[in-house]
Amino acid sequence: MHMTSTGFRIASLVPSVTELLVALGLGPRLVARTGFCVHPHDAIRDIPKVGGTKDVNLAKLRRLAPTHVIVNVDENRAETAEALREFVPHVLVTHPCAPEDNPALFEQMAQAFRAEPGVADRAGLLAEQVRAELEALRQPDWPFRRVLYLIWRNPWMTVARDTYISRMLALVNWHTLPDRAGGPRGAARYPAFDAQAGWLADVQEVLLSSEPYRFGAGHVAEAQALCPDARVRLVDGELLSWYGARAVPGLRYLRALAG
Length: 259
What we know:
Blueprint: E1 10-12, H1 15-23, E2 30-33, H2 41-44, H3 58-63, E3 68-72, H4 78-84, E4 90-94, H5 102-112, H6 119-138, E5 145-150, H7 164-170, E6 174-176, E7 205-209, H8 220-226, E8 231-235, H9 237-241, H10 247-258
Parallel strand pairs: 1-2, 1-3, 3-4, 5-6, 5-7, 7-8
């Protein structure tokens, strides 16, 4: 079996972290990914897939003999992480819950893979870029808006206030409804709601995400019916929800969206 110069054999079960690892120069060390790990396409297209984020093919992953597997509290199941610990030397758990958590994520990867030349420097540069974008967002006096961020239909689903997405939007004084925390893990972080819920009348902006449900122009009227007085817009879900390397263009995108 081929071994890399550092011996790292990395499996990423988190799409945004897969992209981050490539940005840190660790693409050649990746031996496995999920089918949802699609960026950057050219760098990862030949890396074996081991199922989805929620339905990992553990037998195939075991055969690929990773030294490190990266999981996420929201993306992956707790039982998957437990099963991985039986045959993987290092299971790295990630859980960024706000854009401000990105530098810590970069440092976590830098510490784990510090033997790989250039990783620490690239992680530091990314952290500087994220901090600069966060500072730029703090400058304007953003008007307060009540927002419904839709991630699914049938049933309708949105985001709790303590998710990365909600805290991203809060940077521009956009506050998601319902005003509810989802807790550290589990389904409550992405609650379903009834189309007759009273709080929908208070919504001023409806944002239709491009993922995980691919909302399109054909869904605008349906969303408008939920909140007749709100402005409804299609938004790039990857830019608003992916932490890691995409946080830099994501924060710029948010600033343009709110401007």
